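Hello again,

I reread your note about wanting to compare the complex against the isolated chains. To keep things tidy I'm splitting this into two emails, and this first one only covers the full assembly. Below are the input lines as submitted, including protein chains and any nucleic acid or small-molecule components. They are followed by the predicted structure of everything together. The single-chain runs will come separately.
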Amino acid sequence: MKRKLLSLALCSVMAVGLLAGCGGSSSDGSGDQAASADSVAEAEEQISADADAGSGELISVGFAQVGHESDWRTASTQSCQDVFSEANGYDLSFVDCDNDSAAQLEAVRSFIQQGVQYIIIDPIVSTGWDQVLGECSDAGIPVIVIDRTIDDSDNYTAWVGSDFKTEGLAAGEWLAAYAEKQGISEINALVIEGTNGASAQIGRTDGFKEVADANGWTILDSQDGDFTEDGGQQVMESYCKSYEGQFNVVVCQNDNEAFGAMTAMDNAGVTYGVDGDVILISFDACTAGLQEVQKGTINADFECNPLAAPFVEEIIQTLQAGGEVESNEVYVEEHWYALPDAIVDFSVNGVAQEMTEVTDEVIEAQY
Ligand code: GZL
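Full-complex prediction:
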């Protein structure tokens, strides 16, 4: 926006200068050309001063979003569009990268070309970022990463998101406590992972596996369901054929995969949930996921909070005011949800965990 304004102003000043030059007084017109050059410089200074002084100019923000694969993603996108609205003083350029990493890098480069003032990235996968973050840095554009992490560069201003490994550990430690309460001594689990290479997939997988290994559980299989309902259903259909009668736990790395897995288990005659043969664990705790917990089909849901935008806005406002960003890592608050019978005591890394009972009010307030 700033660059657009500047070029518009410069064009108009140049046009005026040229017109004056045509009918000007001096013989060689140098006076007018000098005048227009001065006017251009003045315009440049004025526009720049106005924009920097926040004279009501919109702050331009480019947001390269993962895609539209899940309820969680929809909430994340909505949060950003609500916060970075024109009414709030922002000019948001939003690109849905449709789970395509190449398209996401292209989107970031297009923001650089546009000359936006800030770039927000939710990285589809955690690697392949060093080069383009260097280009953002060379262009003097602060980058704020949200949700998933970038693991091959720290060349950005800040990150706002969740601790995915803690989410995985929490699911595992909850299962250990719940299985003990239920008198279940043997765990044979099937895992439906999120998009391969996403830090959410990596963290949740590692965290749950760490607890499984510590408890001597068997993870029969762990395949990529791409964080989608179709993906969850396809993987679960395959599991129901390959592992018929062998499993008593299914871990889905987001609610949409769990919805698909439920369809597949229904079709295969496998019972799940609080009254079923299979314990079903999910992540995200979106509204629809909590409704399934309330129905007793999902035994426990481990939240991943999608509402990062307000924290990002705080960072942008700090930078706009010439301030320093206090912390380059901001963790959003998250809760672990279940019905009363599945609320058990457990700890993660020695820290006692609190669980939240799913009620109508909790569901009403969810994202
Ligand atoms: C996790 C986020 C994941 C969600 C999925 O922070 O990146 O991506 O768990 C979403 O629902 O697709």
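For quick reference: The chain is about 45% helix and 20% strand.

B.
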